[in-house]
């Protein structure tokens, strides 16, 4: 079965960013794609703050990452950049942790002005970790994501469409990457 690791870079819970990631994970699961959410805020603070690369607390996240065909990285944007807790986690990953991974960045922010933060702040770090195949980014302004009294999530129509399109793109890319290619022999 195809497997996707969804990394939540939000320092708070519940959050719009985490809710959007949960929605993405549920949709992938309904498409028969096994998805696991890893919330970096749940890792021990001392591991992240002191850069403990060899901490046993990182063994499971690294194993989950290695096993994944696709990665979703979600983060709120603060002061034109992704979160510090996500940065601390990414700094602890092996140099080429994202080689051969298909990556879907998802971000939320208070204003559309931070949209390019993904391109100029997050993607360069992910590229440094070996990511080369990025799926169309989903960026949502806070007002486009509303938590309902029953706990469900109401997405603005535009975000709903972009999320669905990006998830479909991720599914196709993962299936293409994990399906053995049959090469025709030309005599």
From TrEMBL:
Gene3D superfamilies, per the entry: 3.40.50.360
Keywords assigned: Flavoprotein, FMN, Oxidoreductase
Source taxon at top rank: Bacteria
Enzyme class name: oxidoreductase
SUPFAM superfamilies to which the protein is assigned, alphabetical: Flavoproteins
Pfam family, one: FMN_red
Family matches, as PANTHER family: FMN REDUCTASE (NADPH)
Entry protein name: NADPH-dependent FMN reductase
